[in-house]
Amino acid sequence: MTNIEFDEEGYLLDLSQWDENLAKSIAIKEGLELTEAHWEVLRVLRNFYEQFEVSPAMRPLVKAVTKELGADKGKSIYLMKLFPGSPPKLAAKIAGLPKPANCL
Question: Is 65 within 8 Å of 41 (Cβ atoms)?
């Protein structure tokens, strides 16, 4: 088993080490149990990162979710329910992506 390293805030350092099992264990540490609704958003996030090489802040995340999953899911309230606190930060952490640049 490879040694998996995180930064001081809990973000994965080597993005290539991410897989769904790691996502589940990060989510558990954050007090979340991942449902299909979480996985949908995590897939959107990973696609966004693949395309733009940056983790989206809230507005771009909402736009990407709206585009891929529809207007009812592309709302900040929906994302807050799934990823409490700061959806872009928490979802990026679970998705094994860097912290969004303009999220405090």
Answer: yes
SS3 label, residue 48: helix
Task: Retrieve residue 3's tokens.
Answer: 């040694």
| The model's pTM | 0.94
Walk along the chain (104 residues) and give the pLDDT tens digit of each residue. Answer: 468 999 999 999 999 999 999 999 999 999 999 999 999 999 999 999 999 999 999 999 999 999 999 999 999 999 999 999 999 999 999 999 999 986 55
Per the structure, the complete domain to which residue 52 belongs is given by: 36-94
CA distance readout (Å), 2 to 5, 18, 22, 27, 44: 9, 11, 12, 19, 27
What CATH number should be reported for the domain holding residue 55? 1.10.10.370
Is residue 44 in a domain?
Answer: yes
Q: Can you tell me the distance from the alpha carbon of 65 to that of 46, in angstroms, rounded to the nearest whole number?
A: 11
Give catalytic residues, as residue numbers.
103
